[in-house]
Specification:
Rossmann fold, 4-stranded parallel sheet, globular
Length: 260
């Protein structure tokens, strides 16, 4: 089955009823934010969707974009960037999960490609699991991609990793000839590291604290063909990891009444 056919919105009601009744669904979270002159505002959304569709295809699970807009207030200095409040994203996820659970979904995979969404996703997952018979696993697709291919997929902003994802989604949206001048990779990396600390860390207020130009990285270092190979491998890894998580939870809590 073509992975595009896994989109819940493309299904008829009888098709959706059958697909959701299998018990697993995938939702997508991204962001609408600036990525310089060479990548679209929807880069994070397109990246998450591209991977989620492949995950859904492998699991025969319907895929539902939760919102193309994410939690990104620190990008609002650039026109076109949009942001939800964390409460809005969490409430949206909770409300959508009510319908999914009613239709028979017991296992939900959240494919995310935006660091700013993560706290709201965690809050929403806590609320959903407390209120509904539904178990949630979160796949931070950008983290997986960088971890699997650290030498090629740099953890920058609008660099090779995000360029690869957009090339796979729609190569016409990558406009390297319109690239604006970015920050030095070393400066951007040091700035991001400050906010990615896990022990003592500040909360980002403006992305210019990371990169004054709004982006940094090496977007011209990856090809569409190589990007496709990487995205397929990332989808395989997420599916394998999710299945391992469900198996582990089932073994650890064999008498649990909740879904695993």
């Amino acid at each position: 089955m073509d992975h595009e056919n896994m989109l819940l919105a493309n299904m008829t009601q009888p098709q959706a009823e059958e697909a959701l009744g299998r018990g697993t669904a995938v939702i997508v979270t991204g962001s609408i934010e600036q990525h310089g002159g060479h990548l679209p505002l929807g880069t994070d959304y397109f990246a998450a969707l591209t991977i989620a569709l492949r995950v859904g295809q492998r699991l025969e699970a319907p895929v539902l974009p939760l919102s193309p807009v994410g939690v990104a207030p620190y990008h609002l200095s650039w026109a076109g960037s949009l942001s939800l409040s964390p409460d809005t994203l969490a409430s949206l996820m909770h409300d959508v999960c009510k319908g999914l659970a009613t239709a028979g979904v017991e296992r939900l995979i959240v494919v995310n490609w935006h660091e700013g969404n993560t706290p709201a996703i965690r809050v929403a997952a806590d609320r959903v699991q407390a209120d509904l018979p539904l178990r949630i696993v979160v796949a931070e697709a950008h983290v997986v991609t960088n971890a699997m291919f650290p030498d090629e997929m740099e953890f920058t902003h609008a660099g090779s990793m995000e360029t690869a994802a957009v090339l796979v989604h729609d190569p016409s949206l990558v406009r390297l000839d319109q690239r604006t001048e970015g920050d030095l990779v070393e400066r951007g990396t040091d700035g991001h590291a400050l906010f990615r600390r896990r022990d003592v860390f500040p909360v980002m207020k403006d992305f210019r604290e990371v990169a004054a130009a709004g982006w940094y990285g090496s977007p011209d270092s990856i090809s569409e063909d190589r990007g496709r190979e990487i995205i397929e491998a990332v989808a395989d890894h997420i599916v394998s990891s999710v299945e391992d998580v469900w198996k582990s939870l089932s073994e650890r809590f064999p008498d649990s009444d909740g879904p695993v």
